[in-house]
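Dear Dr. H.,

I hope your travels went smoothly. While you were away I took the liberty of generating a structure for the chain from your last submission, since the lab meeting agenda had it listed for discussion. I wanted you to have the full record in hand beforehand rather than looking at slides cold. The sequence, exactly as received, is reproduced here:
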Amino acid sequence: MARAESNEFKNGTKAPDFNLLNTVDNTFLSLENAKGEKGTVIMFICNHCPFVIHVNAELVKMANDYQQKGINFIAISANDVDNYPQDSPELMKQLAKDENYPFPYLYDETQDVAKAYDAACTPDFYVFDNNLEAVYHGQLDNSRPGNGKPVTGIDLRNSLDNLLENKSAVENQKPSMGCGIKWK
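The corresponding predicted structure, in token form, is as follows:
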């Protein structure tokens, strides 16, 4: 598992639009139709990455906590499924069911959306305000597989709380770390 860090994504940057297959219900979903009333979390994840597997339960818990507050979560997988068949749309759908994902799990077959976001790793987290302007891009928390630190989601949670309380963006945004996106 090659480690990669997220690339810089400046606060204030407008969220690139998309219209992708939601593997959960086999419909297409646009950013406009999936965004939250108060904010939107876009996360690049995949099925097989140990870093994503490590945080899956917290992602579900966090989405359940914040979606009722007007912040929607959107998961996107952009991995090359020819070389990583465990990340296929069929298996994405199964994982979303097994993990009880309360959010759409979109498939970026062309990888154009991942490129538009300059996504680099899984997981890679982006938070946008109600105008779809970036207010956070960074790690979930300091926990990584094998480092013994508990998964709390504290960094992302602080960002979401600041957004909901109309406070300034978190200043110290540490890059996310995970498996590099599997480019074609």
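Two observations you may find useful: The two ends are 17 Å apart (CA to CA). Strands lie at 3-5, 19-22, 27-30, 39-44, 71-77, 105-107, 121-122, 124-129, 134-138, 177-180.

With kind regards,
E. W.
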